UniProtKB/TrEMBL annotation:
Top-rank taxon: Bacteria
Biological function: Plays a role in the flagellum-specific transport system.
Annotated protein name in UniProt: Flagellar biosynthetic protein FliP
Family to which the UniProt record says this protein belongs: Belongs to the FliP/MopC/SpaP family.
Length: 240
């Protein structure tokens, strides 16, 4: 809901300044719109909780040996709305401290007053809020790596980390965390595969693929322990 409010407010702000693109040819306007959508997707993957969530859910599906069940669309939808749930406090702050003041400044400018809060001010506040979330979920070793690679001295406070260091450090930190969680998820299902394989070999049924028997067992275990609830709880709780 908060993300929808943020999107609506942003669209209202941009709708209030159509003269910025009115002189461009329609193909250029379409190209700018597509570029903005691509940038939004890149932001979703790079500076939010989406990467960790989609990777962990993909590990769950592979551990269950269910191939394409749940479908990719369901996995993406669940990942997106879990991301919105995790990022809701950050989006609330962006909406309160950046979007609303920018809309009020635009309304005052239409009445003849001087613009006191511009787009750069809004972007600065929004980027600081996103950076706060990223720094809370980034390992110090990953930050040190990119400070070393960029030959940039680290600031006295983590919040002062430049975006060129914060974003890649956050991404590889998310990848590491997602793979650790995926490994922990794999272990119980791997044990089921080993037990089923041992039983089939003991019974002399070596020609039967173990996955034929182990998949229903894994699904039964996953349903009995309410696996999707546990996975969702673990994912949300894993973010600072």
């Amino acid at each position: 809901m908060d993300f929808l409010l943020l999107s609506q407010a942003a669209s209202e702000v941009t709708a209030g300044t159509p003269e910025m693109f009115s002189d461009l040819a329609p193909p250029l306007q379409v190209a700018i719109m597509l570029g903005a959508l691509s940038f939004a997707v890149a932001m979703l993957v790079s500076v939010t909780a989406f990467t960790r969530i989609i990777i962990v859910l993909s590990f769950v599906r592979r551990a269950l040996s269910t191939q394409e069940i749940p479908p990719n669309q369901v996995m993406l939808g669940l990942s997106l709305f879990l991301t919105l749930f995790v990022m809701a406090p950050t989006f609330d702050k962006i909406h309160k401290n950046a979007v609303i003041p920018l809309m009020e400044a635009q309304a005052n400018q239409e009445e003849g007053e001087k613009l006191e809060f511009g787009y750069l001010d809004g972007w600065k506040i929004a980027s600081e809020e996103l950076k706060t979330f990223m720094m809370a979920n980034t390992r110090t070793s990953d930050l040190e790596l990119f400070f070393e690679l960029s030959e940039t001295p680290p600031p006295s406070q983590r919040i002062d980390t430049p975006m060129k260091v914060a974003v890649p450090a956050f991404i590889i930190s998310e990848l590491k965390t997602a793979f650790i969680m995926g490994f922990c998820i794999y272990i119980p299902f791997l044990l089921i595969d080993l037990v089923i394989s041992t039983i089939l070999m003991a019974l002399g049924m070596m020609m039967m693929p173990p996955v034929v028997v182990s998949t229903p067992c894994k699904l039964l275990l996953f349903v009995l322990v309410d696996g999707w609830q546990l996975i969702s709880k673990a994912l949300v709780a894993s973010f600072a």
